[in-house]
Amino acid sequence: MSAGTQGNAPTGVGRTALGVAVVRAMESRRRDRLFDDPYAGAFLAAAQGPFIPSQRGTAALVGGVSATGAEFWSRVVLRTRFFDDHLLAVAAGGVGQVVLLAAGLDTRAHRLDWPAGTNLFELDLPEVLAFKRKVLRRYRAVPRCAHRPVAADLRGPWGEALSAAGLDSARPTAWLLEGLLIYLTPAETEHVLATVDALSAPGSVAAFEYESVGATALRASAARLPGVAQYAALWRDGQPDAGAFLAGKGWRIEAHPAERVQARYGRGGVAGGFVTATRA
To answer: Do 166 and 148 form a contact (C-beta atoms < 8 A)?
Structure first.
């Protein structure tokens, strides 16, 4: 996965992080918000790129003009809160290492209350991490855990870079693959999951989505929506068998259907759901 830069902002695959930041910034402004990301708006202000959705494009996403746009928007909101709660619960249960793969502009290291001793690794392309670091420093953001950015390409030997940064494969790790697998080919997905498995001690947990907006019919619809088309063009459908792959490696799989998650948080409009997998 490659990314260039446009001014100070990431482009290519890296631009998808800005699309997610748009959703998180607007959700943070709601009175009934499911989470508060105080830095999402700062990333958008710093990007100043033409790929940031216009007011018209944003209105289309949130105003029900497109069911596809609404699905994209709602999924980002629900998955952010679901994975927030999941990671904090796992960390509270004693898993002291957290790895965010393709972390993008995620700010969980800075906005969540982590247990003492938590080590959080963020792996992404160097251009994305450099942009993020510059903005967070400008706003004097302070991480609430041991924060360890790792510059690496997931298509390569990224496990080596993670280990060099201090990941202890003899200890349980919480892995988050949020919004990632849809941008990978099946072969790339297998490489990522095989690396996760190889670095995971018993008690490790991985979390990701299933039945994502990369479904064939939904992608075709998204390709015609101005606010989403630029992201849909990057989707590769690398995730249908992710759960089965880990199950074949001895991981215990638990599905969290969207209906159950939506009932928990009082929001709707999302198909599919989420998976948490635990290594025996």
So the answer is: yes
